[in-house]
Amino acid sequence: MQASLEQLSQIIVFASLETVDKINLQPHTKVQRYTKGEIILHEGDRLPAKLYAVVSGSIQVTKIATTGKETILRALAAGEIFAAPALLGNGISPATVTAESDCEILTVERDALLKAIGQNPEIALRMLMVFNTRIQLLHETVHGLVSERAIVRLARLIQYFAMESGTESSPEGECLKVKLSYYRIARSIGITYEECVRLIKSLNSVIAYSRGGKIIILDENKLDAIASGEI
Question: pTM score, two decimals?
Answer without folding.
Answer: 0.65
